[in-house]
Amino acid sequence: MQQHDIDWDLPAPFTIEIAVRPEDTDRLGHANNVVYVRWLEDVSWAHIESLGMTWELHEKTGKAMAITRTEIDYLASANAGDQLVLGTWLTDYDGRFRSARQFQLVRPSDGRTLVRAVSTHACVDLKSQRPARAPKEFAEILGSAVVAGGKGL
């Protein structure tokens, strides 16, 4: 199986590798839409943790970035046994409350982009679950990680 160069939508994505398991598939035989959402969450957490926005920091500040919207375009099916690469970028941060993230799911064996997605997030207080201003630690991490040219808020 030949590996194709991945044509990423934006430069230098943070990536994780995904092996599609039989239990990830639905009655149609391809990865279920719920599984794609889980993969988006997995890569999002891995990315922010790699930037230093660990769960310990969330607990210390009492704040977290909660998803407010996810938009997913399913372009081609993933099937059991497929080896995939999911890339993500932080594409916007308003400096106070909201951030945006872009995703691209690729099957390297044929170079196809299977999914493109965008999510928006708002800072919330962990106890009250109400909107809250992002702590300075979040602002520094998110602000420095934004990649230009992506889909914003």
Layout of strands and helices, then pairs:
Blueprint: E1 14-19, H1 33-50, H2 55-61, E2 63-74, E3 83-93, E4 98-107, E5 112-125, H3 136-145
Antiparallel strand pairs: 1-3, 2-5, 3-4, 4-5
Give a description of the structure:
The protein has 153 residues and is of the alpha+beta class. It has a single domain (14-145), classed as Hotdog Thioesterase (Thiol Ester Dehydrase, Chain A). Helices cover 23% and strands 35% of the residues. It is built from three helices and five strands. It has helices at residues 33-50, 55-61, 136-145, and strands at 14-19, 63-74, 83-93, 98-107, 112-125. A five-stranded antiparallel beta sheet has the order 1-3-4-5-2. The radius of gyration is 16 Å and the shape is globular. The N and C termini lie far apart (39 Å). The mean pLDDT is 94.
